[in-house]
UniProtKB/TrEMBL annotation, chain A:
Protein name, as recorded: Na(+)/H(+) antiporter subunit C
Gene3D superfamilies referenced in this protein's UniProt entry, alphabetically: 1.10.287.3510
One GO term describing the cellular component: plasma membrane
Transmembrane segments: 6-21, 28-48, 68-92
Protein's organism: Psychrobacillus glaciei
Compartment(s): Cell membrane
Superkingdom per UniProt: Bacteria
Length: 113, 476
């Protein structure tokens, strides 16, 4: 199971890097979305996927899943959701204001102002 | 936040808030001085299960100086930021950023630190784009993308660390890592942490985003960013490299030292290359980051003490310098040095306070930069890093040259076209700036008084046991 997850995470990272390196702003933002998905999967895999029961502590329960990665992934999802929403709105405003979504044309030189 | 259109009410609220925060921090400072490291476990979950907030001397000093900077920047923005921005939630964004900054300084839980980083990044996104000018939009897109990638990397690193040690509490991680010793994976994690915090703290190959993004927003925001945001990254590097990765410092700390020297060189080149006042001071941030990290990478008492001294000094002096050149830009209407000149005659107070701040930055005794640099160099020589120490000394000359160049171009020479700003505005801008310069001078002249505080901070950094014992006090 962990091996399968590693391959999936690697694939997501690969796709994310490819998209982030492209010129179009929208593709870059989709790339960051994929990057955070890969990160979240990695986070949940790091705790181990072997637990069988829910982490409710009563007598006699020995094999339960590690709850911390789940708490972490929840926090990370919320944060990345907020950041993605913000960057989408910002990309829209930038497109409206600058008239382009091409990163090549957004270089920080004076004649691009 | 509750009355976006009533600027006056907002101003009063934010001032009261900052003053209250400053008072309580100073109370905490005194408490930490007398009773040692203070901890607070949220929800009374005993460590290592709950989130712990830890105030050792280093973090409480950083919190205090960040609040001082924020106080003066807010005072300064009353006259300089403009009502449009004030109505667009400028003050709430600043307060949120302070929450993030101070939280990151104080937290004792590595994932919680990520959350606080996100809080401060989110509000810095808002601040950098507030106003929506073309240049701001263009630069903030890049700033956000860089930070999203580095945040993802942060989560990945925390995931790795968790899978190795099985805990997130920083004190607990320190104990567990000391038991494990330096396995290969630990070195990987250490370098990943260096990359993550290096992007935030602008070390050598990773500072590429800094000059563009920081030059875009208006002056008070730039001041806050320049004084505080990079220092959060620096703090995080110092914290992780003194608390976690201490068992085998051969590779990681050597790497940190080499990178800090290259950072200094890169910063020096940038500071001399530009004729834009903003860029010159921004590259001085990069130099300062290098100097602080060099001191921290030596890991002996003098180096660490100097690092602490220089860290606080740099927060204060960068704040003062940015506010000063903010006034210069306001008067001349340009940030290009070649179009300025002869401000000395009409604005002597500004000129003299700039000169004092510039000398303080370069470290001319008895001003504040001197003692920190002296101690760092002393520590470096004690540890046999002669060449690196000479680089630090030489960088002081470059810093002096770069800031004196601003002085010569802007304040001497014949008078050039000057925008008329009313004396009242000038006075209102000058008041907080002068106060901040006076604080930096006092920090330098009264260093005798500051040394015991710095010594306490250094003790915790050099001996992780002090930190971990304080966190687990009463549990074990």
């Amino acid at each position: 199971m962990e091996i399968l997850m590693s391959i999936l995470i690697g694939f997501l990272f690969m796709a994310a890097v490819y998209l982030i390196l492209s010129r179009s702003l929208l593709r870059i933002i989709i790339g960051t979305g994929l990057l955070s998905h890969g990160t979240h999967l990695l986070l949940i895999t790091m705790g181990g996927l072997n637990g069988k029961a829910a982490p409710v502590l009563t007598d006699g329960v020995t094999d339960y899943v590690d709850p911390i990665p789940q708490a972490l992934i929840l926090t990370a999802i919320v944060i990345s959701f907020g950041v993605t929403a913000f960057s989408l709105v910002l990309a829209y405003r930038t497109y409206k204001e600058l008239g382009t979504d091409n990163m090549e044309l957004m270089k920080g030189t004076e004649d691009n102002d | 936040m509750f009355f976006p259109k009533k600027v006056k009410a907002q101003r009063i609220t934010v001032m009261i808030g900052l003053l209250l925060a400053l008072t309580s921090t100073i109370a905490l400072l005194i408490k930490v001085k007398s009773d040692g490291v203070q901890t607070l476990t949220l929800g009374s979950w005993a460590p290592p299960f709950g989130i712990t907030m830890v105030s050792d001397m280093l973090s409480v000093l950083l919190v205090t100086s960040s609040l001082i900077i924020a106080l003066f920047v807010v005072w300064y923005s009353f006259t300089s930021i403009g009502e449009d921005r004030e109505k667009a939630f400028y003050y709430p964004a600043i307060m949120f950023m302070l929450t993030g900054v101070n939280g990151a300084f104080t937290t004792g839980d590595i994932f919680n630190m990520f959350v606080f980083f996100e809080v401060l990044l989110m509000s810095s996104y808002v601040l950098i784009v507030l106003g929506g000018e073309k240049g701001q939009l263009r630069e903030s897109i890049k700033y956000i993308l860089v930070n999203i990638v580095s945040s993802s990397l942060f989560v990945i690193t925390v995931g790795y660390l968790y899978s190795v040690v099985g805990t997130l509490n920083m004190a607990d991680i320190s104990i567990k890592l000391a038991e494990i010793g330096q396995a290969g994976i630990i070195t990987v994690i250490a370098v990943l942490f260096l990359i993550v915090f290096g992007i935030k703290g602008a070390i050598f190959p990773l500072f590429f985003w800094l000059p563009g993004s920081y030059a875009a927003p208006p002056m008070p925001i730039l001041t806050l960013f320049g004084a505080l945001l990079t220092k959060v990254g620096v703090y995080a590097i110092i914290r992780t490299y003194t608390l976690f990765f201490t068992t085998d410092i051969g590779f990681t700390h050597e790497l940190l030292m080499i990178i800090s020297i290259i950072t200094i060189i890169a910063g020096c080149i940038g500071a001399l290359a530009y004729f834009d006042v903003k860029q010159i001071i921004i590259y001085n941030i990069v130099i300062a980051v290098g100097v602080i990290l060099f001191g921290a990478s030596i890991m002996n008492e003098n180096g660490m003490l100097g690092s602490m001294f220089y860290l606080i000094h740099d927060i204060l002096i960068k704040g003062a310098l940015f506010l000063l050149i903010g006034i210069v830009i306001k008067i001349t209407g340009t940030s290009d040095l070649r179009k300025m000149g002869g401000l000395m005659k009409r604005y002597p107070t500004l000129a003299w306070s700039y000169l004092v701040a510039a000398f303080g930055l370069a470290g001319i005794p008895p001003l504040s930069g001197f003692l920190g640099k002296l101690l760092i160099v002393q520590g470096g020589i004690e540890d046999g890093h002669i060449w690196q120490s000479i680089f630090i000394l030489a960088s002081s000359l470059v810093v002096l040259l770069s800031v004196i160049r601003i002085f010569i171009y802007a304040f001497w020479g014949e008078e050039k076209v000057v925008q008329e700003i009313s004396p009242k505005t000038y006075r209102h801008l000058l008041a907080p700036t002068i106060c901040l310069v006076v604080i930096t001078v006092l920090y330098g002249v009264g260093s005798e008084f500051v040394v015991p505080f710095m010594k306490d901070a250094t003790t915790v950094l050099l001996d992780p046991a002090v930190y971990t014992d304080a966190v687990f006090k009463g549990v074990k």
